[in-house]
TrEMBL record:
This is AraC family transcriptional regulator. Residues 187-285 form the HTH araC/xylS-type domain. PANTHER family: ARAC-FAMILY TRANSCRIPTIONAL REGULATOR, TRANSCRIPTIONAL REGULATOR MTLR. InterPro entries: Cupin_2, Homeodomain-like_sf, HTH_AraC, HTH_AraC-typ_CS, RmlC-like_jellyroll, RmlC_Cupin_sf. Pfam families: Cupin_2, HTH_18. PROSITE patterns: HTH_ARAC_FAMILY_1, HTH_ARAC_FAMILY_2. Keywords: DNA-binding, Transcription, Transcription regulation. One of its GO terms (molecular function) is sequence-specific DNA binding. The keyword Electron transport does not apply. Transmembrane segments: none annotated.
Length: 290
């Protein structure tokens, strides 16, 4: 598996690149690139990885990532099973670091946008009314041409720079330790985990996939993911459980076992540690939020 970098190189005669994505699943490769990226999910569910942060995503997920911040929107396993009734849609915008020209961001009028782009080094998720307005502007960018696209982009960045309806994703201390040569190894591990997290996974198995000893793999993974492999696996399972809890017809015990846990006590403890809620309280809160 080759390292996945930015899919649509920005033409030398364009300020930025924007495109609609419509595929059976989102690209399952852990990757990073030198551009800022705006991405909104219009259809699909799965797990979003941003630096050392991971969380379930669904329709409406809107994130800004900064240059060279590793990221991936990993569709749920069922999107890889050939079901023609399941597919994903999203809009992505790539912005080069100098898309506003040299010196613009140093001007007084641009201080809010400068702060926004600086904070994007950790990834920023937008929600609420900001999310709705930003999604409409992303759609508008696709429909417009030439300078109209630039005006819509500036309007979008202005909206995001003023918003308080946002949260940082990667931890404050996170720095990308990956080299391009590391992405193939990490992608192999991610692919194995995302395919098998509902079953028992041992450290020996994933270490073998990475062609490393268990001890070496543990150190390697902690360095690059900023967390232990066991914590990473638990977060994947809890993220999937969060999605299952949105279906009121699935009881908590079934969610537990379908997410890869073997006892309700372990599931409930891990769920509370990661989300701050017990499973039923989470269902009530987020089903009520629509």
């Amino acid at each position: 598996m080759k390292a996945a970098l930015q899919k649509s190189p920005i033409s030398a005669d364009r300020v930025f690149e924007a495109k609609m994505l419509k595929e059976p699943h989102f690209d399952p490769n852990w990757h990073f690139h030198p551009e800022y990226q705006l991405f909104v999910v219009l259809r699909g569910t799965g797990t979003r990885f941003t630096g050392d942060h991971l969380a379930p995503f669904r329709q409406g997920d809107f994130v800004l990532t900064g240059p060279n911040l590793p990221h991936m929107w990993q569709s749920d396993p069922e999107y890889f099973e050939g079901n023609k009734d399941l597919w994903t849609e999203g809009i992505v915008v790539y912005l080069p670091e100098d898309f506003l020209g040299n010196g613009f961001l140093e001007k007084k009028e641009a201080w809010q946008m400068r702060q926004l782009l600086t904070r994007s080094s950790q990834g920023i998720e937008f929600y609420g009314n900001t999310n709705q307005q930003a999604t409409l502007l992303m759609q508008q960018i696709l429909l417009q041409h030439d300078f109209g696209r630039i005006l819509s982009l500036l309007q979008l960045l202005h909206l995001l720079s003023q918003s308080t309806e946002c949260r940082q994703l990667a931890s404050a201390g996170y720095t990308n330790q990956l080299k391009a040569s590391d992405t193939e190894r990490m992608n192999s591990v991610h692919a194995f985990v995302m395919k098998n997290f509902r079953e028992k996974i041992t450290l020996d198995e994933v270490a073998a996939i990475a062609n490393m000893t268990p001890t070496s793999f543990s150190r390697y993974f902690k360095t690059h993911a900023n967390k232990n492999f066991s914590d990473f696996l638990t977060e994947i399972r809890i993220g999937y459980a969060c999605k299952l809890l949105m279906d009121e017809n699935i009881d908590v015990a079934q969610v537990c076992y379908d997410s890869g846990f073997y006892t309700l006590s372990n599931f409930n403890r891990a769920f509370r540690e990661i989300t701050g809620y017990n499973p039923l309280a989470y269902r009530k809160k987020y089903m009520g939020a629509g």
